[in-house]
Amino acid sequence: MRQNPPPAVVPEPITADPPHPVNRPLLTQSWLDLAFLHWTAAPAQVAPLLPAGTVPDTLDGVTYVGLVAFRMHKVGWFRLPGVPYLGSFPETNVRLYSVDAGGRRGVVFRSLDASRLIPVAVGRAAFRLPYVWSRMTVRHDGDTVTYTSGRRLPGPRGAHSRIAVRVGGRIAEPTVLEHFLTARWGMHTELFGRPLYVPNAHPRWPLHRAELLDCDEDLVVAAGLPAPAGPPVSVLYSPGVPVRFGRPSLGRS
């Protein structure tokens, strides 16, 4: 991926609610049982990994690397009901934070491990997303949620993660940083060398404090990033939200 000059406009405000409605969704799904782990990163360190037309999105001069584990539930096209089996599966992604020349904040996925082969194939073919097929589980034991992942194809085989969090109380008023890390209203990627932005909308996140009990992973390194230095600076949990994706828009390379 190549890096363009910084955007000429100020990024959109950080908001807990979507800045743009998605009235005619291309895709619907729910994200459930999410664990958000984040480490700080220098913008110059991640800039070469972003798509053309974007730069690192920062808060107080810092950007972040996210490791997010959750359950995808009932992915559906247009207004059709979601698919119970093929559209429901665990997923773990490594993501960065981006802003484009239009000021739109988004995420950039460096990897997306998922346990259903057909959605992996569709994501790679249709959106050129770095989906990989993995063995995955999400298990509840009281207030503890454990996520496991072991990569199958296309590799690197053996890349894995084990995350366990103890869910705490609901956050009444999330901080600006917590909104910055979770309320991301689009995805930046490339399609045939051109920037692609896919918007999304969902209700405000119900966020909880979470205590990290276990984190044994090498997905961040497998995604082309340095190994995290120390524990994450932010650990959050959410029971989830329903999500609507709008139609992609292509930009100029």
Automatic annotation (TrEMBL):
<dbReference type="InterPro" id="IPR018644">
    <property type="entry name" value="DUF2071"/>
</dbReference>
<protein>
    <recommendedName>
        <fullName>DUF2071 domain-containing protein</fullName>
    </recommendedName>
</protein>
<dbReference type="Pfam" id="PF09844">
    <property type="entry name" value="DUF2071"/>
</dbReference>
<dbReference type="InterPro" id="IPR023375">
    <property type="entry name" value="ADC_dom_sf"/>
</dbReference>
